[in-house]
Amino acid sequence: VSLQMMKHAWDNYKRYAWGLNELKPISKQGHSSNLFGNIQGATIVDALDTLYIMEMKEEFEEAKEWVEKNLDFNVNAEISVFEVNIRFVGGLLSAYYLSGEEVFRKKAVELGEKLLPAFNTPTGIPWALLNIKSGIGRNWPWASGGSSILAEFGTLHLEFVHLSHLSGNPVFAEKVMNIRKVLNRLDKPEGLYPNYLNPSSGQWGQHHVSIGGLGDSFYEYLLKAWLMSDKTDEDGKKMYYDAVQAIETHLIRKSSGGLTYIAEWKGGLLEHKMGHLTCFAGGMFALGADGAPSDKTGHHIELGAEIAKTCHESYDRTRMKLGPEAFRFDGGVEAIATRQNEKYYILRPEVIETYMYMWRLTHDPKYRQWGWEAVEALEKHCRLDGGYSGIRDVYNNHESHDDVQQSFFLSETLKYLYLLFSEDDLLPFEHWVFNTEAHPLPVLHKDDGNKEENQK
């Protein structure tokens, strides 16, 4: 079914928005997100590996041809370093590792080089925004104290290590290792990592901590850096398990109804709210269970299962059986969005991602059942003649669509669904690590030094 869904999403993108970033399925035209500046083709690059994995060979070939002829980074525009890294660099790297097509390696390294000026700050903590023509960077105007954001500068590691591996140029890996050094030197409040860090002073901004937006993928990349290094990156490993310990102590709580959730921390005060983005953490805890310290393996799997259950409840307690952007545990409500601006669903993958990890690591059939519920809800409420659209209020009786088919729907949501219902030997965890946009990157074994040379 996820194959048919992919075909519907892709065919309509091709029909109405080919070469543009994303599709507007109701207006039947292209959607341009300012995150990518003037770079075009986000959906194509994000979907490459999904097309390949689903054996949609014709579609993969036409996508490859578009990349060869039209993917252009010489644009005078400001881009989000984080978004371009996870979607474009990640997408190109995966497409290369899966298909062996040289064009993807070449484009990935070319784009990586264009991102390097973002690191030209006093600390080496990169800017959030970069003009890729002029090389001038800055931070989001709304970020606390002119800071860079933890989830943004903390979600470059996997891709940049692979850029060094594929280009033979150590500079990429050096840039991300330096970020770690800066973080290790700093005092962490209660062992927690605030979401804001000023790239000039090297000091934290506001002491806000989140495992949802602004924080989320930083933690994921610590664990995955260790896994991707064939478990040799001891530093990443230690930082991850120490962080999880602090998260358990200070952020993980249980509601009166027995649901485990991860709250947000604001300078020592807890806000009992959990974002859809935070739901990725169930899968992360389960993935990290195997390496957990001293017999804590079962505990981490259990934690993953409890987060998965809470996130399933956030879906189940809506009219449309699709989860809201954020949900709360206060004033007598549990796992329900109480604010209008948190009731939307934009085709996000995090809950399905956690189902996929929980299925692979426990084989409990309920995770496939929950995944199937999500498929039915997506087909009923998000599928339109012109593609798939997000929804403005998941508690409503009738759909109000937002008219955007996000590129991550093809990259992540549909890929995780496909993997959830596939055998474990498709992209097995011992050989592949998924970046935060679900782009699989191979584990780098110690004897891999000249593997690339041998392949050429």
Features:
three-stranded antiparallel sheet; disordered C terminus; mainly alpha; 46% helix; 456 residues; Glycosyltransferase; 16 helices
Number of domains: 1
Distance between the termini: 37 Å
CATH class: Mainly Alpha
What does the main sheet amount to? 3 strands, antiparallel
Radius of gyration: 21 Å
Counted beta strands: 18
Strand order of the largest sheet: 3-4-5
Mean pLDDT: 97
Structural class: mainly alpha
Subcellular location: Endomembrane system
Pfam families: Glyco_hydro_47 (PF01532)
Active site: 83 (proton donor), 216, 325 (proton donor), 350
Disulfide bonds: 279-311
3D structure, described in words:
The protein is mostly helical. The protein has one domain (1-442): Glycosyltransferase (Alpha/alpha barrel). 46% of the residues lie in helices and 11% in strands. The chain has 16 helices and 18 strands. A 3-stranded antiparallel sheet has the order 3-4-5. A 3-stranded antiparallel sheet has the order 8-11-12, with no helix packed on it. A hairpin with a 4-residue loop joins strand 1 (22-24) and strand 2. The radius of gyration is 21 Å and the shape is globular. The model is unreliable at 450-456 (pLDDT under 50).
Describe the secondary structure blueprint for this structure.
Elements: H1 2-17, E1 22-24, E2 29-31, H2 42-53, H3 57-70, E3 78-80, H4 81-99, H5 102-115, E4 129-131, E5 137-138, E6 148-149, H6 150-153, H7 157-167, H8 171-185, E7 196-197, E8 208-209, H9 216-228, H10 234-250, E9 252-254, E10 260-262, E11 264-266, E12 269-271, E13 273-275, H11 280-287, H12 297-316, E14 326-328, H13 350-362, H14 366-382, E15 383-384, E16 387-388, H15 407-420, E17 432-434, E18 440-442, H16 451-455
Antiparallel strand pairs: 1-2, 3-4, 4-5, 6-7, 8-11, 9-10, 11-12, 13-14, 15-16, 17-18
